[in-house]
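Q: I'm writing up a methods section and want to include an example of the input and output format. Could you take the sequence below and give the corresponding predicted structure tokens, formatted cleanly so I can copy it straight into the document?
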Amino acid sequence: MTDPRLVRAKRRLDTLDLYPRPVRLERVRLRVTPWFFRVPGFRRYHGYALWRTILLRRADASEDLVTHELCHLWQMQHEPWRVVRTYLTTRYRRNPYEVEARAAVAATRPS
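A: Here is the clean output for your methods example:
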């Protein structure tokens, strides 16, 4: 069964036209892993997107955070190697995929 937070985040992202196909939730998992965020290099994050898994620092993570991380999975579903390369070569704040995910959250935030 798909986590309801993922379903709500998908519903938000489905209102956007960023990629040719909507984000797919098949095999996408949400995991609360506070230990991951104690690893040096990951301490500043509250969520992290892997290939088909979203890691959250806390179980009560905001819907905005889940939407942000799901947007990263959507990006990887369409441009996997470009996303990885960009994360390896571009500073976090200026990374176009980070900028896009933040904008997606802002554009779909309920008023």
